[in-house]
Amino acid sequence: MTSQILRDARKYEEERERKIAKEPRPAFHLSARVGWMNDPNGLSFYKNEYHLFYQYHPFSAYWGPMHWGHAVSSDLLHWKHLPVALAPDMDYDRDGCFSGNAVVLPDGSHMLMYTGVVKEAQPDGSMREVQTQCLAIGDGMDYEKYAENPVIDEKSLPEGGSRFDFRDPKLWKKADGSYRCVMGNCTADHDGQVLLYSSPDGFHWKYEKILAANRGRFGRMWECPDFFALDGKQVLLVSPQDMMPQGFEYHNGNGTLCLIGSYDEETDTFTEEKDQTVDYGIDFYAPQTILAPDGRRIMIGWMQNWDTCNLHAPERPWFGQMSLPRELSIKNGRLFQQPVKELEAMRSNEVRYENVSVTDVIKLDGIKGRRIDMELSVRPGDEENIYRKFSVRFAQDDIYQTSVSFRPYESILKVDRKHSGSRRAIIHQRRSLVRSEAGRLKLRIILDYFSVEVFVNDGEQVVSATLYTEPGVDGISFYADGLVNMDVVKYDLTEA
Ligand code: FRU
Predict the structure, then answer these.
(1) Taking all residues of the chain, what is their mean pLDDT, rounded to a whole number?
(2) Does residue 370 sit in the same domain as residue 233?
(3) Where residue 373 sits, what CATH number does that domain have?
(4) Atom nearest to 63 CA in ligand 1
(5) CA 300 centroid distance within chain
(6) Which of 294, 313, 339 is the last residue of a domain?
(7) Residue 98 is inside which H or E element, if any?
(8) Does residue 1 carry a pLDDT above 80?
(9) Of 52, 202, 217, 460, which is most buried by a Cβ count within 10 Å?
(10) Is 168 a catalytic residue?
(11) Which atom of ligand 1 lies nearest, measured to the CA of 55?
(12) Same domain, 294 and 391
């Protein structure tokens, strides 16, 4: 049974979609069907397709009462929008259906677990959002909210755990058929923690323990946890709010944190060994992973950041896009990311150059475009006298350019979108420390009209940023202060 509120939302998005003039969109990054999109939700494989839901406010291009948008794909790159899956239409979620995840139940149905939000008047007159965890069961198109919702509420919190910051369940099925779930939460003094729950059937949940605690290290509230085994290690991803910067590793504001360690399944004990940022760029948050049928661990994040996402023009008919799906691995104790291999099937029009000398500014015949996959291999042209700076500039004409530049003496990589057409005083640049031996660096740059994702040194680091330069501005040039020797291969990424 669909509610009137859901039917109205479905009708609205259909009508609105028809009214939106055809305008350029990302081709292989999922963007909001209409209105606003934030976090990826419910990333799962069901009935032979990938399902990706998302935090969605169809009625405007700004955040509002959260729905779950829905899209399906067979290759994680070409997405088909389906009708909005969840609307805030019950007493226990009337102010929003926040982030969550999905599993396939033994009877073949698809189960979504999400955070239900209800505003509650406080004794001092203020309103706060109480958060509980709820279920909806469906067939890949229509979802019915579970009669016993919520299935996890404040009764299942550790002492001092906040019922206002208690959200974003990520659940998975264990080999023995039982379920586990991790959730973001805050202590009484507003410090992030990840809670672990268990269930024999996905419906009845029991609080187990605090799986990981921030202890004041990385921001405050920890949103959107994900927890999985990878290459013999255990990974905990969280998105901390209110971060303070730490060197070039963590920046101010909302960040993404990857804790790598080991996990004792008998005692549910996670032992941290290392920490790092997930994405070193400007726009990346709230990632979620899936274990694909072929065993790959694939991650998708929201390619935006909370500090700037509300500064766009109000007349935009859609706002928000996902990152590329990225295959994860652990090498030398670090999280590596590579674009999903399915992207290679979209490559066409190869243009290749080897051993190009770059001094000052050069352009290369055939190297241009705004939907491209370009690999650069950069080394000093003179080993005795290493170049001081190398840049690649794209989305470029006489007025505009966005750039990625590298200074080997400092080993700093910088993305700069100051000249991408932005009229706001938002963050336009970000620097990160990269690994480079004697001026050698590998970059794989993926452009899809309104974004750049730079995979550094075979995915050891990734730098993502959105840009809004008109898609027709498609020039690319290279610059060196000193002498650089470079190999380039560029493919167009066309809609297959
Ligand atoms: C993260 C987040 C989640 C929440 C959702 C609300 O970006 O704040 O914690 O569930 O967005 O839209």
Answers:
(1) 97
(2) no
(3) 2.60.120.560
(4) 12
(5) 5
(6) 339
(7) strand 97-104
(8) no
(9) 52
(10) no
(11) 12
(12) no
